[in-house]
Structure of S9 family peptidase:
Amino acid sequence: MAGMTGRLCSLIIAALTATSAAAAPTGRLAYLKGGAAWVESTPGQAARQVPESRGAVLLALSPTDGALAFLTGPQGTNIHAEKVPPLRPWLSRPPYTKSVLLNSLVPGPTFTTVRARWMTWDGHALIVGTDGENAGWNLVKRKTFLPSQSALYQSTSRNGEVTATLGSVQSPDDVGVLLYGPGGRPGTEVFTRRLPENLLGTLKTAPQPAIRRFLADIDPRAQADDVSWTVTSPRVTRDGRQVYFASNAGYGVGSAGTTTSAIFAVDVREVRLRVLGWMGTFEGSVLDVVPSPDGGKLLILLARHDSNAHVNTYAYVADLGRKTMRELIVGSAPKGTLTVLNSSCWLADSRHVALSVAYPRPEALTRVNDFTPPPGAHALVVKESASGRAVSRVAGATGVACGPQ
């Protein structure tokens, strides 16, 4: 009996150990801290400072091979200032022991410096946005190019066959969602403000009371005006099968961008639009709807203005299979503080979310600091999407980016 009990205990311990290991976060993580770029091969493990990254202000990890692209500038550079100084683009490949200037990898006409405010990096093309023309480097073809001004508002599947962007066939400035890919070549309008029937049709067939109330509150006169509409950048899943976005369907926009929105999904092959009515509606300003790497969950970012001095950012995780939702950051805020999200991303395992968040008191945010907490006030927290439990924390980290396992 004693031997059997011992074996049973060993099996239980082994099972618990396996469960713990399975729950551990996996996937590369990069962030800015102390004026440099850092990379963790797995959240919670020892971080490596990336060579030549002193002065880094923007970074992105390739979802394909984990290569880190980053931009460096003079000390004190603020990419949100009225004028951005020239920034130098770099690339560092795993294991991040060496960094090289991007113009040494891409021959011919190139951008040695850029006054960038944002960047995207899909492992093939690196794009940065400036106040003038955007700049791009194709690392596969080893060429520079001038991306469209709508590059920030579009996404592409991992194989590059499906792209979704804001706009219409006539103009990228139109209200609407445009799809390129299987079922949508050479470009299909999912909906536009001028032709909203697809969007309204899926709302009319939704059985949920919250969606019915939302639809009943839309004023057709307001809906006819572009300024009454909000649409988040459409996000393509990595497998290219679905596209997700939020829209207020012309509900109207109040002070500080306050409105009411619903979450929509597009079946790419059939170009079929549907509303995810089980989520209800979101009051405030939906900032982004980001699918997890496996396409099974959504990270929904929302800003809510309770008053001019009280603006909180919410981060909801929606499990599309189980049809459950959980808020990750506002519920953790100390009493009397605001929730300010700097950046966020899905880890490669699709089970954890990385969030750089600060909890300042309202009186600490003034015009002097542009109503923004200093970088040191933030903390990078990795949380389980299902439970909301924090599994890793890095004080003073911002600009978080996630990469492959």
Remarks:
- The first strand starts at residue 29 and ends at 33.
- The chain has four helices and 28 strands.
- Helices lie at 2-23, 197-204, 209-216, 220-223.
- The radius of gyration is 22 Å.
